Amino acid sequence: MDHEHRPNATELSRETGRVEAFSDGVFAIALTLLILDIKVPRAFSIAVPHELTAALLKEWPSFFGYILSFVFILIGWINHHRLFTHILRVNGTFLLLNGFLLLTFTFQPFPTSLLAEYIGHPGERVAGIIYASVSLLIAIGYQLLWRYAAYNHRLLKRNVNKDMIKQISREFNRSFPIFVLAFILSFISVPASLGLLSLLMLFFAVTGFTAAETGVE
Amino acid sequence: MDHEHRPNATELSRETGRVEAFSDGVFAIALTLLILDIKVPRAFSIAVPHELTAALLKEWPSFFGYILSFVFILIGWINHHRLFTHILRVNGTFLLLNGFLLLTFTFQPFPTSLLAEYIGHPGERVAGIIYASVSLLIAIGYQLLWRYAAYNHRLLKRNVNKDMIKQISREFNRSFPIFVLAFILSFISVPASLGLLSLLMLFFAVTGFTAAETGVE
Amino acid sequence: MDHEHRPNATELSRETGRVEAFSDGVFAIALTLLILDIKVPRAFSIAVPHELTAALLKEWPSFFGYILSFVFILIGWINHHRLFTHILRVNGTFLLLNGFLLLTFTFQPFPTSLLAEYIGHPGERVAGIIYASVSLLIAIGYQLLWRYAAYNHRLLKRNVNKDMIKQISREFNRSFPIFVLAFILSFISVPASLGLLSLLMLFFAVTGFTAAETGVE
Amino acid sequence: MDHEHRPNATELSRETGRVEAFSDGVFAIALTLLILDIKVPRAFSIAVPHELTAALLKEWPSFFGYILSFVFILIGWINHHRLFTHILRVNGTFLLLNGFLLLTFTFQPFPTSLLAEYIGHPGERVAGIIYASVSLLIAIGYQLLWRYAAYNHRLLKRNVNKDMIKQISREFNRSFPIFVLAFILSFISVPASLGLLSLLMLFFAVTGFTAAETGVE
Question: What predicted TM-score, i.e. pTM, was given to this entire model?
Fold first, then answer.
């Protein structure tokens, strides 16, 4: 396209806004679909009230998986959103990387469901490794998306200065080794791997959210 | 972040708008997913027409649960939305509290489904207590979100005056004891607990909606 | 609320826009969830290729129901959207009526599924009556929503003149008796009732869409 | 409607934006719902860990179908979005054609699911033909939508010049014969047909995204 049709700032912003709104939609749906994995025990199999309590307690991996993945996706959305506040424009490669990230997030209900089914069963190790792998893929997705956008100030807004770029890079880099560690741990001990990911989510939920605050104020 | 990059009113409003739009999406999806819990009786089990009528009538708890939870989520959305009309900016803690609220709403299809399965069966008491508990958690979520935002005018718009704050607080405080009562009642009589929640929703649907009108005009 | 805080045109428009965006989300989700009702025949039950063809052809009521309800919801969205282009502001009663309309639309997948299961089976009559009833409820919902908003120019924009109001009322009134007729017919002949509704949707898809064109140009 | 009420540019843009936002929602939901087709093997059927690995590997058609359809819908969204950046206004016929496109996209989970169930089973041919047919229908949908909008500059923005129109037409025309070929191939060899569609998606993911870049910059 020749220079006469170079889009202005409003058009770029509208374009970027669309990609963000589409991604927001995918995050919101992935978040809400998680509940479909929690199955209600059938009434005919329950003879006395406390049997239902017992049946639900036995399903604790489903509830644990639900909350872990909910927080995971919610924090994923917040990070995605923070990243986008610094983006001026999108291009083909960025869309491709963003698509990869959305693929891993929409896939998340499957390892969650697998985990809920296999904790305490023979397939636990396999399910735990898959869960940690998908988590790691998501972390890699963020690294790629951010590094591509920030490299040489490629897609960033003008008013984003070096300190802001460094701060975000530092935050992404700080958590990345933990995803790698959780992945390695999943081969040795699934509870340890999940415990580490849970702690990381808890940490994000507190300080990550606080960072979001700093980022805005 | 230093003072040179303090965001202006437009940026704050855009930020707050994104959080609201994301929450709106989650509410809309949770609302629409409720229908997946109503199961169609299989054709091969029905020999004569009126057997289908009978089978559907026997499923009345599903329909009742569907309508109750639909109204619950719809009113939840309206309240969430009203609250946000007074919010100027968001911060980390607010996002955390808002996330907790979204978690309880996306979880809502599960107790609804549990209720539909167990009304009239041995597990009714357990299902009723869980439904009332989740309802109470939602009410607590609103209290926390609003109190945090309104405390010392922390996140509110400048033009929100003390009378407006008091009015909203009064409305939230007025309904809160009823959620507590419904929770206590669920240990004694599930129909009484559900009846109370249904009445509250009916009351909201009429006066709550009217209050929404007052709030806008 | 006193007169000092009477919202200005921008605030009213933002408010109305939110309600419309939320409703749009519900329509889009209801539309997309319909596909979940079409079941894939299990592979182990198919020994030779043409058995799959036969199995899929036998499922024609599912495909018919899918397309009918898809067009139904899509046209519902277009009508909802056209109605909203004339709305200046919303109030409590309008939100209540809009909520009723959304309830009927999110419920739509259930009668569709029921119809797909029972066409050609003993429960056909019952399923057909329920489908026609929900369709009629939707038509009633539009009548209420529009009449309430248009009565004495209650919630309409200033530039909406009497001719425009009359035109929309005429269109809603023109199709209403057909929904009533389809409802009555469902007690006599389900194919006739569904045929009439299909014709009406076809008519809408052609002239209704054309009217939308006129409405915009 | 008489000339006094001819909508201005802002109104036309708002109108077009709504149709695009609604379509975006449908794309986002269709994308996220795909995961529901991947079934978790039941825990009781797995006695030793590697049985789960084997069970998951046996499900490769589900994962292949998931990724293929995800990329298909994502690219579909990008193309839809690019097309809309040139649209000034919508009319009834355009809404009808857009509705047809959305219908084919929301239907996509069904052939994907069918394919996952029947690859390597007697029904493979039938499933493959249906998948290629729906893909072809989508390609036809884009042709119709774009040709209708671009014919005589009917619905396009003023600043869209002949070169830009030709470029988009050329891109749509370039891929169309491949969809036809994949359709024909599906009658001869399903793997060849799917391989061709996969290559096309890969090609789009790389050059199509790059074209999107060119389109914006």
Answer: 0.89
